[in-house]
UniProtKB/TrEMBL annotation:
Coiled-coil ranges per UniProt: none
Record bears the keyword Translocase: yes
Residue ranges annotated for the ABC transporter domain, each copy included: 3-235
Short name of one Pfam family: ABC_tran
UniProt KW Nucleotide-binding keyword: yes
InterPro entries reported for this sequence: AAA+_ATPase (IPR003593), ABC_transporter-like_ATP-bd (IPR003439), ABC_transporter-like_CS (IPR017871), P-loop_NTPase (IPR027417)
PROSITE patterns in UniProt: ABC_TRANSPORTER_1 (PS00211), ABC_TRANSPORTER_2 (PS50893)
Molecular functions per Gene Ontology: ATP binding; ATP hydrolysis activity
CDD domains reported in the protein's UniProt record: ABC_Iron-Siderophores_B12_Hemin
Protein name: ABC transporter ATP-binding protein
Key words of the record: ATP-binding, Nucleotide-binding, Translocase, Transport
Organism per entry: Aeromicrobium fastidiosum
UniProt xrefs under Gene3D superfamilies: P-loop containing nucleotide triphosphate hydrolases (3.40.50.300)
Length: 253
């Protein structure tokens, strides 16, 4: 599903946080949302996910205004993996993943087992099938992140939003996680801090600074030493890495 953010302002009582943000996310593409701490990435994800209503501007998915959708419709179409997912409920991993099916269930009891296949498939895709009977509270940070991906996949969303999804993952799991996401073919918007991971897995980048979009487009067009310096204040070399077959960022002082 194509996502179009058009001239969005969003703020709190102390002032605007997102200023005139416009961005396009083509159907099936993976877009990295990058920018320094506090630049507005999470705020934008929340507005796009429909959790925050813009003061001005619109977010459209397949030409519908996301903020006009009833909550249940939105919950079927959009999945958001929060930065610090937590629950105080004493649930097993399988029960957490089953929560992803809630927006799809009928209103009547007796149909609670529907979506069983999607739950099993999502456990497999999230590489957490072996943890299915473990209690959520006993999992490591990285295991929880993979379970949250499985929960989001059980939702069968048309748009997947990830807020720093790899921050607890070791190198192998970072690569596995983002490879899985890319192979899904779902329109994905991921806030990422690691520019090398963004270059490796994203088709496009949207770069934010102080609540503004300062650059957007295909990774090869956007990621440059000048951009890294302008946006992060860090000197870097950005070049094509032969063996990796992609752009590669090396910072230096
Ligand atoms: N509810 C709120 N009330 C007050 N300020 C807020 C609120 N939500 C966000 N902010 C502020 O808006 C700015 C953008 O925050 P946001 O979390 O969107 O940034 P971010 O780019 O995701 O940051 P990080 O990389 O640190 O996660 C920050 O200065 C933050 O303190």
């Amino acid at each position: 599903m194509r996502v179009v953010v058009d001239a969005v302002d969003w703020g709190v009582k102390d002032g605007l946080i997102l200023h005139d943000v416009s961005a396009e996310f083509p159907d099936g593409s993976v877009t990295g949302l990058i920018g320094p701490n506090g630049s507005g990435k999470t705020s934008l994800l929340h507005v796009v996910a429909g959790l925050r209503r813009p003061e001005r501007g619109t977010v459209r998915m397949a030409d519908d205004d996301v903020h006009a959708w009833p909550d249940r419709v939105r919950a079927r179409r959009v999945a958001l993996l929060e930065q610090h997912a937590s629950t105080t409920l004493d649930l097993t991993v399988r029960q957490v993943v089953e929560l992803g099916r809630v927006p799809h269930r009928g209103r009547w009891p007796g149909r609670l087992d529907e979506g069983h296949e999607q739950v099993e498939e999502s456990l497999r895709l999230g590489r957490v099938a072996d943890l299915a009977d473990r209690r959520w509270q006993t999992l490591s940070g990285g295991e929880r992140q993979r379970v949250q991906l499985a929960r989001a996949l059980a939702q069968e969303p048309s748009v997947l939003m990830l807020d720093e999804p790899t921050n607890h993952l070791d190198l192998r799991h970072q690569i596995d996680f983002l490879s899985t996401v890319k192979a899904l073919g779902i329109t994905t918007i991921a806030a990422l801090h690691d520019l090398d991971l963004a270059a490796a897995f994203c088709d496009r980048l949207v770069v934010m600074r102080d609540g503004h979009v300062v650059a957007a487009g295909p990774v090869e067009d956007v990621l440059s030493a000048e951009l890294v310096h302008d946006v992060y204040g860090v000197r870097a070399t950005v070049d094509h890495h032969e063996a990796a077959g992609r752009l590669h960022v090396v910072w230096h002082r």
